[in-house]
Design goal:
alpha/beta
Length: 429
């Protein structure tokens, strides 16, 4: 097992294979790396946590065909790992490192399974692991290790996109262009993966690229935003909602009649979380597995539950996330058990569950009032653990106080207060 490479020891080799996440932070991280090599000396591949294992297997063949593997670098940037394919990843990484390739991994996802850190598998495979705190953009970690003043703007775009930095007035000049890039990259990942490499190479050549006037960014962002808005209208009209917990507020939203959410899942869940001042569990079809659901969990801006704990209650190997979002794929047979665990967990969560901001006034009572009302509610309504009180599934378009423009914590009377009987969750329509 090698010691992790020090910043002062690093110099670029003759060629780099760069595997990056298919989002703006991944693109910017890849561009920062690519800037340190000749453009022709870089090969890019954009993946997600599920496809990383396959990407590494395909790299082995390329590397074996190379004249001098000892002069190659392999970067993995902004790609979380999960339990489902960690054995394959470790095996492939070890094979690659034994060929003489130097592997560097930059990321800040949780990378845990049942509380155990999966990064030890990479360390055993002689991978140089640079893991930042959750909430730090991969672009920031990469920039700190090998970036240059010329790539500082790429780090900024990655950090703003990943919400390490808030898009405040200080960064107003990047706001429109960044949002366009986010939408364009999401659409590219969904419909045309070649775009991700094209925009990465463009950013390598022009780190100060005017994103607001780039024709391809504009074209793709329009397509992405139209698709997102169409999906959001569909969710409002046809989605079903269950309140899993009142305090803290956790809503389950099921939309099973469409399979074209793509990269928009996180955006849709985030919008709903903002509208209703709640943690959102969005359940959609799994595109790759007919016997599973794809689940995205998001906090609202003022609601700060531990999404990693919530997500790992599913006990599924296909899971992972960061501070603001958690994604998992779960067997249909395990869904009700997963939601039941979250419901039980929520009863023991210690306040505060939300944070105040200058633009948002919370309608929740103070801590003493909250504790008192919670105790009274459970004295009146709480049933034995094996049979919670019933509540109906509510169409989303019937939820009061729906406002797509204002992010506000709604009052406690906006949704029924009862603890749910999860058998009411309609998963057949």
């Amino acid at each position: 097992m090698n010691k992790t490479l020090k910043k002062s020891e690093w110099t670029p080799r003759s060629k780099a294979f760069i595997i990056a996440d298919e989002d703006v932070d991944g693109v910017c991280s890849a561009a920062i790396v690519g800037k340190r090599y000749n453009n022709s000396a870089c090969e890019f591949e954009f993946v997600n946590a599920r496809s990383l294992g396959d990407a590494l297997i395909s790299q082995i063949k390329k590397i074996k065909e190379h004249d001098d593997p000892n002069n190659l670098d392999l970067f993995i940037v902004d790609v979380g790992i999960n339990k489902a394919n960690i054995t394959s990843i470790e095996k492939s990484a070890l094979s690659i490192s034994q060929l003489g390739v130097r592997i560097l991994y930059f990321d800040s996802h949780s990378n845990k399974y049942k509380g155990k850190n999966l990064l030890t598998h990479l360390v055993r495979a002689n991978v140089n692991v640079f893991n930042g705190k959750i909430g730090v953009a991969a672009a920031s970690i990469v920039q700190d290790f090998l970036g240059s003043p010329e790539t500082s703007r790429l780090r900024l775009l990655g950090a703003l996109s990943d919400r390490e930095l808030q898009l405040t007035h200080r960064y107003k000049t990047e706001k429109t262009g960044l949002r366009g890039l986010q939408a364009a990259v999401a659409w590219g990942a969904y419909k045309n993966p070649d775009f991700l490499e094209k925009i990465t190479r463009r950013l390598i050549r022009h780190p100060d690229l005017d994103l607001e006037s780039d024709k391809e960014v504009i074209e793709y962002s329009i397509k992405a935003n139209n698709h997102r808005d169409n999906l959001l209208r569909h969710v409002h009209k046809n989605g079903k909602i269950l309140q899993l917990s009142e305090t803290p507020r956790i809503l389950v939203v099921t939309v099973l009649d469409r399979d074209d959410f793509g990269k928009a899942r996180g955006t849709i869940a985030g919008r709903l979380a903002g509208e209703w001042g709640s943690a959102i569990i969005l359940i959609t079809q799994s595109v790759n597995n007919n016997n599973a659901y794809a689940i995205t969990i998001r906090n609202s801006y003022i609601h700060k539950l531990d999404l990693e704990i919530m997500g790992q209650l599913a006990n599924t190997e296909n899971s992972g996330g960061s501070k603001g979002a958690y994604r998992l794929t779960i067997s249909k047979d395990e869904l009700i058990s997963f939601l039941s665990k979250i419901q039980l967990w929520s009863r023991n969560v210690v306040p505060p569950w939300f944070v105040k901001s200058s633009s948002t006034k919370s309608k929740h009572p103070n801590k003493s009032q909250r504790s008192k009302s919670k105790n009274l509610r459970f004295q009146k309504k709480r049933k034995p653990e094996t049979k919670p009180a019933k509540a109906d599934t509510i169409p989303i378009n019937k939820i009061p106080n729906l406002n797509t423009e204002v992010i506000e914590m709604q009052g406690d009377d906006s949704i029924e207060e009862d603890i749910l009987d999860l058998s009411d969750l309609d998963l057949d329509n």
